[in-house]
Amino acid sequence: MNINIDYGKREPIYEQIVREVEKLITLGILEPGTQIPSVRSLAVDLGINPNTVKKAYDILEEEGLIISKSTKGTFIGDNIDQAKKLKMEELIEKINKIIKELESYGLTKEEIIKRMK
């Protein structure tokens, strides 16, 4: 699993791991049932504390993107479509908040769309 971490970023490493795994799932690189590295293995690969990876995996499990099976490992969940849908809704909500903020500065939706293009 190829995860890119920017150690100089202000974004916490565990959030970067979550975002990277979400991206790999969304792009279809990680498919349902695919085994992903153990917490310890990924921590060693990234040169970080295992607790950081554990925190990321806990979030991904809460989102329904991964499933931990005791003694067998951690796998991409079977119901990732619902998780993808929820993530897209979350991102659209963020965009709507940004649009509202831009409107509060006097921009119209048409101006915002024009500038985005």
Description:
The protein is mainly α and 117 residues long. It has two domains: 1-78, Winged helix-like DNA-binding domain superfamily/Winged helix DNA-binding domain (Arc Repressor Mutant, subunit A, Orthogonal Bundle), CATH 1.10.10.10; 80-117. It is built from five helices and three strands; from the N terminus they run αβααββαα. It has helices spanning 13-26, 39-46, 50-62, 80-104, 109-116; strands at residues 35-36, 66-69, 73-76. It has a three-stranded antiparallel β-sheet. It is elongated and about 55 Å long. It starts with 12 loop residues before the first helix and ends with a helix.
Give short descriptive properties of this protein:
117 residues; mainly alpha; Arc Repressor Mutant, subunit A; 2 domains; 3 strands; 58% helix; 9% strand
CATH A-level architecture of the largest domain: Orthogonal Bundle
- Quaternary class: single chain
**Widest β-sheet, arrangement of strands:** 1-3-2
The CATH H-level superfamily of the largest domain is: Winged helix-like DNA-binding domain superfamily/Winged helix DNA-binding domain
What proportion strand?
5-15%
CATH topological fold name of the largest domain: Arc Repressor Mutant, subunit A
Number of strands: 3
- Which word captures the global form? elongated
- The number of helices is 5
Overall tally of structural domains: 2
Can you give me a brief rundown of this structure?
The chain is mainly alpha-helical.
SSE diagram, text form:
Blueprint: H1 13-26, E1 35-36, H2 39-46, H3 50-62, E2 66-69, E3 73-76, H4 80-104, H5 109-116
Antiparallel strand pairs: 1-3, 2-3
Helix pairs in contact: 1-3, 2-3
